[in-house]
Amino acid sequence: MSISERADIHRMATKIALSYARSHNETFDAFPQLFRTAYHGLLSCAEPPREAAAPQRKAPGPAKPAAPRGRPPRRDRRRRG
Length: 81
Description:
Number of strands: 0
Number of helices: 2
Radius of gyration: 30 Å
Shape: elongated
Oligomer: single chain
């Protein structure tokens, strides 16, 4: 990443942190952490994604029998008793 790209990210992070601090009535003491969060967030967007190991899929289990199609059998509605 070039120096000018880092300077642009630094400038954007400053704007983001200031905007957040103003809209959420943050104190001046909170600004360094707000800036750091914005800066690292922007850096993670600018860097190419890292190669992550793909999660291994489970092997398929035995096939389940299919449910019968059509209407279910009717129940006997006669009254008992």
